[in-house]
Structure formats: structure tokens, C-alpha cells
Amino acid sequence: MSTTDWTRFNTPAHLTAQHACRHVIHCAVDGHTRAAVSAHLDAARPTSDPGVLLLIAQLSGPCCLPPAEPNTA
């Protein structure tokens, strides 16, 4: 179970980049997409599924942005 704060990937810039991605291996930019790809990656690793490479490519694609700073308020 992941403890990543996926909401930090849901800024307007992340959502716009996710919507604009036109790569063959679709980049996982926004929080919802990154969470889904991360869950698939967690499931694929133990079985040595060759899809691991594609999932990693999605998480590190050219459209990807770093997470927003955490809200300290």
C-alpha cells in the first residue's frame, strides 16, 4: 500500500500536462494516473513482468513534472 501524497501531482500544471501528452507511451503526470501506474508497477515487480519497463517509462516520461511543494498550512 502506497503512502505517497498523490494530490501533490494534481496542480493545474500537472493536469494540463497530462491532458496534453501525446506520446506513444502515455506519460503519467497527474496524481490519479500516477497512482494507477504505481499500483500496476507494484503488482508487476514480483512477477518480473516485462511491462515493468513500460510502467517506469510512464512515470518518468518527458511530460512528467515534479510534485508540488507540500501544503504546510
SSE map:
Elements (H helix, E strand, L loop, with lengths): L11 H9 L10 H14 L7 H8 L14
Describe the structure.
The protein has a domain at 33-66. Helix content is 42%, strand content 0%. It has helices at 12-20, 31-44, 52-59. Helix 2 (31-44) packs antiparallel against helix 3. The longest helix is centred in the middle third of the chain and has 14 residues, at 31-44. The protein is flat, with a radius of gyration of 13 Å. The model has no long low-confidence stretch (mean pLDDT 91).
The gist of it:
By secondary structure, the chain is mainly alpha-helical. It contains 3 helices and no strands.
Stretches where pLDDT is under 50 for at least 5 consecutive residues are none
Q: What's the total number of strands?
A: 0
Helical/strand content category: mainly alpha
Helix coverage percent: 40-55%
Q: Describe the biggest sheet? A: none
CA gyration radius, whole angstroms: 13 Å
Principal-axes shape call: flat
* C-alpha termini separation: 26 Å
Q: What is the H-and-E element order? A: HHH
Strand composition percent: under 5%
Secondary structure tally, helices: 3
| Average pLDDT for all residues | 91
